[in-house]
Amino acid sequence: MNSKHSYSAADIQAWLVSNLAELIGVETDEIDIHEHLENYGLDSAQAMILVSKLEKMLGFQPSPLLLWHYPNIAALSQRLAEDLPEESAIQDTTTASVNTPIPTLDLSAEVVLDPTIRPDALPPVSITEPKHIFLTGGTGYLGAFIIRELLQHTNADIYCLVRAANPQEGKSKLEKNLQAYALWDDSYKPRIVPVVGDLALPLLGMGAEQFQILAANIDTIYHSGALLNYVFPYSALKAANVLGTQEVLRLASQIKLKPVHYVSSVAVFESPAYAGKVVKEQDDFNHWEGIFLGYSQTKWVAEKLVKLARDRGLPVTIHRPPLISGDSQTGICNTHDFINLMVKGCLQMGYFPDVEYMMDMSPVDYVSKAIVYLSMQPSSIGKAFNLQHPQPEPLSTLIKWVQSFGYPVKAIPYEQWQSELINNVSSVDNPLYTLRPFLLERWSDEQLTIPDLYLQARRPHISCQETLQALAGSSIVCPPISSEMFMTYTAYLIQTGFLNVA
Q: Where are the domains of the chain?
């Protein structure tokens, strides 16, 4: 479409309805222009696809943050219409995004746990064989694998928090998610119980009476739910990731004491204060300055809340995965995750950035098995575990594997790779185009991009020795990052049509 065309709010609104419907696979009449966009389940990649297509249509790059500040189509359309320049032309993304203001945020001031959450007011609990387990995040990637592990290693019914119009729709969502990752077995059906609610709402979106009934019924809680979005700021993710965690802690502390097994993230150590340092499982993390991703900021605050609850007497275990890769046995993975989108984009581009990155992602089967096993050990209560890959490999090794498979790719200096991204990646068919708002946004006084912030020299060394010792004696071992594993992943991605044969 002509980038100098003048669009009204109604034009933009119609375009957004059509493109959102196409993106999430529904009919246009199912889109409500006053519905919060988050309720359509947009993940980071889909949000960035929408932003990138908007850039093509409007002739300038709208900030991805607009999707938060104007969270429904009606409001967003009006705002974009006001932003249209008279003679709009596509701006250089590197200069367009520099001017995005970064609000001052004191994360330590966010660490406030409702004083009415008092686990120490309840008698101690020792549950070796829970009958009723409550789980958040069951419609997510890791959550699906945790459900399978719990079904296989306990006799409990799994009560899963799910956003849905009714329990039937909720159950269908959970089943479809397990089926999508080839984890479904018909024998699971009677043991999966949908709990209609919302992590971002008070009392998890339930009425007070239902919340109390659930609190009385549940024996153990696995909290793996979070809104994972690399574009949205802290303020957009706080309700689900921080306040949602507080509501889970509230549930654990009412009627009877319930252990909470919380899925955190190694992102709690992202502050440059830890760069080059070894951080161990039980180390505290008081530095938050220099953590710029909203998602990482929420994980820092949320884990602090869990620790406050622990100090008040709640039995907890904390599990910190890194980026999570596919199933090491089947290759099944989330094709919308950052790793896969980057690899696919670089393959299409023909270039990888020649940077000092370590591939430290852990396979989802290892992470889920470790979480469930460790959560069942009485000695784990009160401890944190780092599920970082114990033997990371440099990005250069991945590039060599890709080349050995016949893909014509080269490693080029990062600045040159950025230039290629800005000047030569112009189609939404390349995932890198949709990732540009994430890859080119500049942060900090040094005006660094997110990839700059994750260079090895700026990262800590995440120790997982205590975690490996705790897993010793089990059959759970983190598979090595090898060419064989990469072939397993690649075969799955080719089979599903996500990647083309070299």
A: 9-92, 107-338+359-386
Q: Rounded CA gap, 202 and 111, in Å?
A: 17
Query: Can you tell me the distance from the alpha carbon of 252 to that of 246, in angstroms, rounded to the nearest whole number?
Result: 10
Over the stretch 71-120, which tens digit does the pLDDT of each residue have?
678 878 887 877 665 433 333 333 333 344 445 689 999 999 999 999 99
Residue 344's nearest CA partner among 494, 227, 236 is 494
Burial class, 109, CB count within 10 angstroms (exposed 0-12 / middle 13-18 / buried 19+): exposed
- Cα Rg for the chain, rounded, in angstroms? 23
- Confidence (pTM): 0.84
> In angstroms, rounded to a whole number, what is the distance separating the alpha carbons of residues 53 and 446?
30
Q: Which of 219, 193, 214, 216 is nearest to 129 (CA)?
A: 219
Q: Among all chains, which residue has been given the structure tokens 């980026």?
A: 323
* pLDDT category of residue 158 using cuts at 50, 70 and 90: very high
Here the tokens at position 400 are 């060599």
Length of the chain, in residues: 502
Q: CATH for 107-338+359-386?
A: 3.40.50.720
Of the options 3.40.50.1820, 2.30.30.240, 1.10.10.60, 1.10.1200.10, the CATH number for the domain spanning 9-92: 1.10.1200.10
